[in-house]
Structure of Pyridine nucleotide-disulfide oxidoreductase:
Amino acid sequence: MPIKNNRLTAEQYEQNFSDIHPPFDSRESALVEANRCLYCYDAPCTKSCPTSINIPKFIKQISTDNVKGSAHTILVSNIMGAGCSRVCPVEKLCEGACVYNLLEEPPIPIARLQRYSTEQAMEKQWKLFERKPATGKKVAIVGAGPAGLSCAHVLSRAGIDVTIYEKESQGGGLMTFGIAAYKVTPQFCEAEVNYITSIGGITIKYDQELGKNITLAELKNNYDAVYLGFGVGLARQLNIPGEELTGVVDAIRFIYDIRAGAYEQVPVGDKVAVIGMGMTAIDAATQAKRLGAKDVTLVYRRTQAEMPCTEVELDIAKLDGCRIMWLAAPATIKGENGKVTQLVCNLMQLGDPDASGRRSPVETGETFTLEVDMVIKAAGQIPFEELVSGNQIQHKQGKIVTQSNGATNIAGVFAGGDCVNGGKEVVDAVQAGKIGADAILKYLSL
């Protein structure tokens, strides 16, 4: 049961990683769906969007062929509206709130309509925003992910010069490095970053990591304000015997490797177990299958009722042929010659609710064994606690503590996104960036 790359043909890779939610194939198709919208007053879809996009307005603009106006309506609320149209879990946000669900009819395909407008804006390089005259103020942002880019765009529009320090060689953060390739490609992410920064006044310095190449003290001395949007990224360890064996990898690194290189270069096992049931676990499992793994099993310690991922994401995994083992928790990873051969799991049952409100998994005393040659850990990510505490930033187990406007305990330093909330959706990070930018403008008396 070897772990190897180059399992499929070029045609198979292309088919397996093609766009999972294709855009409208014509203007007429978009108009048909736009004209289904009821343009609700006090629309529940808008209220369910973390960035409060005026959804009925942008759909109405599409229906009247005002695509440029539609794109502006979207991007003024969510500058990463193009990317979010591809990756947002709309089934639990805008589309899940559509009134058509109550009428037992398909909801308006809001994400596809949003993609229709925003991708035209990017392709045609529409200039939808103008910078105000330069104020002479300078702001440093740590992290060129959704929170940092959103914050930067708002500040730049206000005439502030922004410098973003990014530890990777590309911007986009989670969008670029942490999401399944069949949802959004690195090339698209690069184009979106370029479109956002085309407003001017935003400089991104790559390969610059806080705590290594730069310090918070330096940024405070050299800039009028600092915004921290460096997310989370440390994989949660299983803390079980055998975790050090060859063939045990974390999902973040696995997905990163898929995003960073050619598909045929990424090794995958014949029989793969994925630990977890969040969005990252689903992305890792489905991509392992699409890379050529013969058998992929998702192992989750609770039941379907408690899973973090959505039903839509779970269905993708099932359609790809992934198996699901509910009420199972990894206990030991066994191997031969330093390589993984088996995953021993505890059978669980649900007890009383824990701090998250979900019922706690409790061991039954029974176990079962999976024959595997690869184990992918997707049991969550943990914040950069050492980085945060080393800079005297108030935090709770690594998650930065902020006021409602993103202000930290250090004057002039603001934060938002996953480094504060521990890991939510891209759209939540975009909104955090907007809130932080507004707070910075008030702090600078602008």
